[in-house]
Amino acid sequence: TETVITLGQKGNQNAEDSVSYAYLQKHTDSYLSLWFLSHGLYIDYPSKKMNALKMLSPSLKNYPEYKQTLASLTQRKIPNVGDTFEEFELADKNEIIFKSSTIKNKWILINLWSNSCGPCVREMDALVNFYKSIDTSKVEFISVGLDDKKENWKSATATNKIIWPSVWQEGGVYCNLCLNYNLMAM
Asked: Is the pTM of this model over 0.90?
């Protein structure tokens, strides 16, 4: 690790890549291999980076760094008007499954947020007031909580203010919806 950091500080990317890759080859199940890959290994060579990512043990696939690296390599795009909506099924606070496919002939506003995001929590009252002021026969709101723990999301004051479909998805900003919509931060 010290060698890789020192080489990086000296700007010797080729040597840094060589040392990192040699480690990764010998330790495909090590978090450090994933760390090297997500923090600079083959930064200028996406195809090499993808091949190295494929070498990693399946046990590393649940780490946020794996998901973020994969997302950056698959070059997710920002959705455009007319793109197909990414359907999903997620549980609400009462463990009842909400299916986005049940919404028909409406505009959909997806609020991806977390109780750990101060601005997200501060805007909730305004969002509720806005929802109450619009014609909901034409627009549907869906809030997707990205809190680390579902129990925290369920019990939070801001969560309990929501008066439209509100669900939780595991994985924070690395969840499937966030990756699909190119959301990397709240």
From this structure: no
What the block records as the tokens of 105 is 């002939």
Q: Is the dihedral of CA 94, 126, 140, 101 positive or negative?
A: negative
DSSP 3-state of 185 = coil
| Gap between the Cα atoms of 120 and 123, Å rounded | 5
Q: Phi then psi for 98, rounded to 5 degrees?
A: -95, 130
20-64: pLDDT as tens digits: 999 999 999 999 999 898 888 888 888 999 999 999 999 998 888
Query: Which tokens is 24 given?
Result: 């990764």
Cα–Cα distance for residue pair 100/114, rounded to 1 Å: 20
* C-alpha–C-alpha distance, residues 134 and 107, integer Å: 12
User: How far is it, in rounded angstroms, from Cα 53 to Cα 71?
Assistant: 12
Distance (Å, whole) CA 28 – CA 30: 6
Tokens of 30: 């090590």
HSE of 18 in the Cβ direction (CA atoms, 13 Å)? 5
